[in-house]
Design goal:
Oligomer: single chain
Strand content: over 45%
Shape: globular
Helix content: under 10%
């Protein structure tokens, strides 16, 4: 069973950048497909980006394509989300998630890190 801990959130001005990290422990990191989700106040949690076990395949929600980049360092057991050209609508709590199979839902979740985009 994997444990996930996010870090790197904070306050940033519109147009700025922020990098999130998710440290995994307790299990073999390369056994897991990984993803980032986010939840804004009063809204449902939504998918942001995902990456396969090797890091060679990624996909994104349309609204972040070209601005966000998901990556993983399997040697460091860490997932990343580089966020550029941030907009106020990107404000949310960001969660990393893990699952062992591609067809089922994500089973493991971190505690979340707050990202606020405001001037």
């Amino acid at each position: 069973q994997v444990q996930l801990v996010e870090s790197g959130g904070g306050l940033v001005q519109p147009g700025g950048s922020l990098s999130l990290s998710c440290a995994a422990s307790g299990s073999i990191f390369t056994n897991y497909y990984m993803a980032w989700f986010r939840q804004a106040p009063g809204k449902e949690r939504e998918f942001v980006a995902a990456i396969n076990k090797s890091g060679g395949v990624t996909n994104y929600r349309d609204s972040v394509k070209g601005r966000f980049t998901i990556s993983r360092d399997n040697a460091k057991n860490t997932l990343y989300l580089q966020m550029n050209s941030l907009k106020p609508e990107d404000t949310a709590v960001y969660y990393c998630a893990a699952k062992e199979t591609p067809i089922f839902k994500y089973d493991y979740w971190g505690q979340g890190t707050q990202v606020t985009v405001s001037s």
